[in-house]
Amino acid sequence: MDADIRELTQIVEREAEFVDRVQAEVGKIIVGQKQMMERLLIGLFSGGHILLEGVPGLAKTLAIKTLAAVIQAKFRRIQFTPDLLPADLIGTLFFNQKDGNFYTKKGPIFANFILADEINRAPAKVQSALLEAMQEKQVTIGEETFPLDEPYMVLATQNPIEQEGTYPLPEAQVDRFMLKIKIDYPSRKEEVLIMREYSRNNTVTPAPVITPQEILNVRGTVEKIYVDPKIEDYVLDIVFSTREPSEYKMPELAPLIQYGASPRASIYLIKAARAHAFLRKRGYVIPEDIRAVGMDVLRHRVTVTYEAEAEEVDSEKVIRDIFNRVEVP
């Protein structure tokens, strides 16, 4: 087994060489936000979708657009508004009066990277149309079904400040996002660099590094990264602690948790940890990989009670407590 893991690590080291070049090219455009870029790569390598939450102006759109350029992938940005219709997203049938036939006009959802800007501003029908495409990786227009190109990744943004006139995503739909990333302001040092760079008219174009087909090959390697049964037990202990805290010697958390994490949490913790190990050029997962991605996988899957909110306890505080108390293998 050890020989197999060593061989796998060598394969991972060889195939992960491009990661440094991707980060270098993205770094020409994006100053700081290293954690966000790393999480975008984790989602890309493990076939998951990402929900980004942050105030306007933190380079969310620019980061995704730059990453798409480096990967030579098709990118579409859709501004979600209250008057948006499902047809504006997936496309529609139109009638040609000249020949009397119906033709399909595909919508902007047919791309590799979809940026759903302010997803909570669109009504439920539009949200469900997008989330169906995320889950099924296909779109039906009229009587015809079209598969979506791989790699296919939805990155949805939410503004945490303005809630007036929004349609919050139901918990069941939020659960379909692999990661929920909270983006913070840059540091003072980073903002000086941003200010200097973007106060000039210099335009830098990132160079392409890898193709969409090569990304699909990378996904195959990521899926082979070794996960020890002890790591699997560690993941299950964490997830089950959110559902049955009293069974895991955390009875004081029981009144604070309304709903624990779904089985998707276990799946995505392993997938994200494998991608995190790949970024670290390792052919095996260690507990630190689970801890590194744990908050992003779980923060939107654990719902706290009204009592917890009254005590100003949010899901992140509960999750941190669980990670601090579950025994690490």
Give me the secondary-structure topology:
Layout: H1 2-15, H2 17-27, H3 34-46, E1 50-53, H4 60-71, E2 75-79, H5 86-90, E3 91-96, E4 101-106, E5 113-117, H6 124-136, E6 138-141, E7 144-147, E8 153-158, H7 171-174, E9 179-182, H8 188-198, H9 212-224, H10 229-243, E10 257-259, H11 263-279, H12 287-298, E11 303-304, H13 306-310, H14 315-325
Parallel strand pairs: 1-8, 1-9, 2-5, 5-8
Antiparallel strand pairs: 3-4, 6-7, 10-11
Notes on the structure:
- The strands form 4 sheets. Strands 2-5-8-1-9 form a 5-stranded parallel beta sheet. Strands 3-4 form a two-stranded antiparallel ribbon.
- Helix 3 packs across helix 11 (263-279), helix 11 crosses helix 12 and helix 12 runs antiparallel to helix 14.
- The chain starts with a helix and ends with a helix.
- Strand 6 and strand 7 form a beta hairpin.
- The chain contains 14 helices and 11 strands.
- The protein is an alpha/beta fold and 329 residues long.
